[in-house]
Structure formats: C-alpha cells, structure tokens
Design goal:
Elements: H1 2-5, H2 9-21, H3 30-42, H4 48-59, H5 62-77, E1 80-81, H6 87-95, E2 99-102, E3 105-108, H7 111-116, H8 119-128, E4 149-154, E5 162-163, E6 169-170, H9 175-179, H10 185-188, E7 190-195, H11 206-218, E8 226-227
Parallel strand pairs: 4-7, 4-8
Antiparallel strand pairs: 1-3, 2-3, 5-6
Helix pairs in contact: 5-6, 5-8
C-alpha cells in the first residue's frame, strides 16, 4: 500500500480502510483492489475531492497552468532534473501535490497518481484552461446582438505582459482578468483566453508552433468561431 500511495497520508489511510472493509488477508489481493479503486476514482466515485485538488491548485494560477502541465508531462515520462526547471514552475508543480523532489530530480509522487493523473488527464485539463467554465469573472456586455465566441491564445510578447511588483515584466497572473482592462474587446466578441507560454516572438521555435496548434486543436469542438 505504501508503495502504491507513495506514503501520501490521506490516500494511504483510505486504502488501508478499503482493505479492512473487504477483509483482505493476502498481499496479492491488494494490487487488484488498488486498480479497482483507481478506476472508481477516475469515474468520480472514490475520493473525488482528493483527486480534484491538484486540478484546483493548478487552475488557481491560470497564467502558469499550461506550462505546469507541460512540465508535468515530462515528469510523467521520466524524472526531470530540478535545475532544469524554472523556479516558479517547479514550485507550482510541487504545490499541486502531483510530484516530489528526490535525488535532485522531480518524480511523480506515487504509482496511483501516475495512473490517475495520466496523459488523458493532462489533455483534458489543458483543453479546459481558459474555457468560460473556468474563466472566473467574465465580462458580459448587455447587447441583443449575438456575438462570435473567440479564444485568445496568449504566447507572451510585450503586448500581453504587465509590470510586476518587483519591477519586472511578466505574464499576468490571470489573463482573463488582464483582458477585462480592455472592455472594447467584449463589444466585438465573447472572449475566452488561455496562456500557453511566455516568450518574446523572436524566441518562438517550431516546438512552440506545435504547442499553439495543439491548443487550437484541443478546443476545436468548444464552439469557438475563431482563434487569435
């Protein structure tokens, strides 16, 4: 059980409780139970709040959510050296509870997390970033005319940066709140926005083009009339 949970206290206690309820007596009975519990969790029928928590923590920082998920995908594939991560992304990833730091590397916290928070989970969450269901305080302009729904994919550059308290230019904490400063946009269309990176245009490379294409493709069926 400890191997499967990585020692996460709450999850470990819950698995032990399930073992007690089913009155398991043999070690080889535990792995099948854990597999069943993980599938129940994916269906939302076991510890829903616990497994929702990493998503909620990541979504609290909308401007970093996409880069954090990109970094988590790398960790999911293999351990990532601590020194290769931006400090803010590493801190956000560690605070999500998905990973732990060991031997100067970031690794997935447990086999159960690896099975639950998998590639599909990453793709699903990426698709939902910036969607109006998660957009918080969204401007609604009183107008009888039906407007197009547009998704703005923020990739960085001077136009979408803001001055931070330390005097540096960086991505806004919440790009949807950032765009509230420009109410004229909302007279043109209904706006959702998502930040996928924070680069100057001269630093963008073919790998970034792929990420932009992926972000558009993930939202192809979300009812948008166009992407910027």
């Amino acid at each position: 059980i400890l191997q499967a949970t990585g020692g996460q206290p709450f999850l470990t206690a819950c698995v032990f409780d399930e073992v007690r309820k089913e009155e398991l007596q043999q070690v080889d009975e535990v792995s099948p139970l854990i597999n069943r519990l993980t599938e129940k969790a994916k269906d939302g029928h076991w510890l829903k709040a616990h497994f929702e928590n990493p998503k909620n923590i990541i979504m609290e920082q909308p401007s970093r959510a996409y880069p954090v998920l990109d970094q988590y995908l790398k960790v999911l594939e293999k351990p990532v050296a601590t020194g290769t991560m931006r400090d803010d992304i590493r801190a956000a990833l560690l605070s999500s509870g998905l990973v732990k730091e060991t031997n100067k590397s970031i690794v997935v916290k447990s086999p159960i997390y690896r099975d639950y928070f998998d590639q599909k989970w990453i793709d699903d969450l990426k698709q939902r970033i910036g969607n109006s269901a998660f957009a918080g305080d969204r401007i609604v302009v009183q107008d009888t005319e039906k407007k197009d729904r547009i998704c703005i994919i923020n990739t960085g550059g001077m136009i979408s940066m803001e001055l931070q308290p330390d005097g540096k230019l960086d991505q806004p904490h919440d790009v949807n709140l950032f765009f509230r400063r420009f109410p004229e946009l909302h007279t043109i269309a209904e706006i959702d926005s998502v930040t996928i990176m924070g680069k100057d245009s001269s630093d963008v490379n073919p790998g970034d083009w792929k990420r932009i294409a992926e972000a558009i493709y993930q939202r192809r069926s979300d009812g948008y009339n166009g992407f910027v």
